[in-house]
Amino acid sequence: MLTRTLAVAHGTFRETVRDRLFYLVGFFGLALVGATTMLSPLTVGAQGKIVADVGLAAMALLGLLVVLLVGANMVRKEMERRTITTILTKPVGRGEYLLGKYLGLGLTLVCMVGLMGLLYVAAVGLTPATLAWSHLAAVYLVLLELLVLTAAAILFSTLAGPALAAVFSAMLFAIGHLGESMLDFGAMNGGWQQAVTQVAFRILPDLEVFNVRAAVVHGDPVTATHLLLATGYAIAWIVVFMLLARGVFARKEL
Q1: What DSSP string runs through 129-162?
Q2: Residues 24-74: pLDDT tens digits?
Q3: How far apart are the C-alpha atoms of 239 and 151, rounded to whole Å?
Q4: What is the distance between the alpha carbons of residues 75 and 96, in angstroms, rounded to a whole number?
């Protein structure tokens, strides 16, 4: 089982590399260099804070773009090309196939975030601001969030076409970061709106767990306990999304 899963993962990783997704890393680097250059006249504290905020936000958004373009289209594309039938006629189970696809795209994201993280650290190092452990912790949490979104995108890709799967993934990203605001909105309106927002808040992942940009910008520490809890939270949601995807995919007519 492991060998077959890793074979699918390796093929997926090679495919994503051929799609030249790593050009986004170059774009990220250029954006950071440009931001650092434009912000050089600012005071020491402001320059470092803005570079950190922009860098982490850009990293998350570029990673989300990869999830929307690749993850939401991953399964459906092979179904439409009928290449999936060739794969599944071999001794590869549907669960192994989905897990391999997830691991392949996950490896791509690890490499991309790793490279962007190095550029981010270098950009922060070019400013007079102090490079702290919290900067690395924030990069790690961005990666965890993207891995959760990847699992969700794979689930949505088994349920709908690429466009809808991408829309659902983007909505999950937005709702996951606006959960508290949604609760406040529901409480203000009351009735069914309050009930809907409370249900959505409870059954969907709270992606703000992975957002520590404010702490990094203001120089607050990111504790090891928070990292540990966020890791467990991410793993739990990845397992949930992948099990749901496997259940849906197992009943799909190919």
Answers
A1: SPP-HHHHHHHHHHHHHHHHHHHHHHHHHHHS-H
A2: 776 777 776 666 666 555 555 577 777 788 888 888 888 888 888 888 777
A3: 8
A4: 13
CA 136 – CA 103 distance, rounded (Å): 23
Distance of alpha carbon 133 from alpha carbon 110, whole angstroms: 19
The number of C-alpha atoms within 13 Å of 147 and in the hemisphere containing its C-beta is 28
Neighbours of 138 (CB within 10 A): 26
User: Under a CB-based contact definition with an 8 Å cutoff, are residues 209 and 144 in contact?
Assistant: no
Contacts of 150 (CB under 8 A, 6+ apart): 67, 71, 102, 105, 106, 109
CB atoms closer than 10 angstroms to residue 215: 16
Contact by Cβ (8 Å): 94, 249: yes
pLDDT digits (tens, 9 = 90+) for 112-129: 898 888 888 888 777 766
CB 165 within 8 A of CB 159: yes
Each residue's pLDDT tens digit, 131-151: 778 889 999 999 999 999 999
Q: Judge whether 141 and 227 are in contact, CB under 8 Å.
A: yes
